[in-house]
Amino acid sequence: MTTRTSIYDRISERRLAQENRQRQFEAVFPTVDFNASCASMVRAWIWLPFGVFDSPLPASELSGMFGGFTHDSRLINACGLRQPISRLATPAAGRPEVGAFNRCSELLHAALNQWSTALRASIDWSNTQVVLFVPDAVSALDWFDRVVYLWPPELSPMRGFDLQMQAPAQWLAALPGSRAAAQFLLCLSVDSWACEERVAACAADEVAGEAVCAVLLRRQPQQLERTTVDCPTLFAPISLDHGSPSSRACNDTQAFEQMMLKLGERTGIDPTRVNVLIGESALDRQGIGQLRQYAGDCLPRLDLNQPTCINPIRARFGTVTQQWVQIGFAGLIASADADCVVWLLDRTQLNQPQGWLIG
After folding, report:
1. What confidence score (pLDDT) does residue 297 get?
2. Phi first, then psi: what are they for 340, rounded to 5°?
């Protein structure tokens, strides 16, 4: 005769089974309370048409770099002309694909083959989650399937893959402090605008570009003191909303002051230590006058006439990859000089500038 168990017994059995599964998980993945506001930048690997960057470098080495451009008769812009393009070299692919999905797949395959032995060996794959940022004009689920298909088995992250459709700024702001989260996050972003889907969005005088960027972040335990961190620290940026175009002319300097005040409070970095500026759209718009005035008044170590003001991309691709490339360069520059503080200024959206301090 079968003994019927009560509902309380069944609930208790389920609770014990759940606790047992949790103990098994924690035996493999020790839990830590992580700081949800920041992460250390352990490594960065950036691939642009004019080179691969994966080691500390001074800002002066980036100034003025640009790999030129070519044309492809298959890529015609809205004016009916061949669009200037700047491609990554993918010799194994033969003639490059012009569809966004296939071209980004070529870039990913080539990038994985280019990763150095030192980079591969430096990553603790047993405690790493790969965070995939989706390229422009590519389906998120299609991209996830392609990455998993191309990913080398020997580099399989035990913490799996996470698919993200947010820009780094939004993702960092929502970074969880979960005890069960992976300690290391390998953020991977691939994009190409040298493709049929995106070339029409480029102005006739713009260069449609490509890039691959991988940034390895180490999440910091809650109790870790700021002074004990031996790598540049990445915090979520500060975003400001400073009104309509008519009000910006007189308020841009005040917006920079507000941004720096909040960045200093968030990061613990003294803004007067800033000596490098990375700004893809900040250095070529009408607001350059207010930026010069603010830097002259408040940032004594930053000379906007020197090669410490960097526009490292010089070609157009998606905002997500652009931000990761800039973050990666900021980490490499800060790693080269312990006294260096990088101000990353993004004014792509003129009504809502974003800023990071990395140092």
Report:
1. 92
2. -90, 135
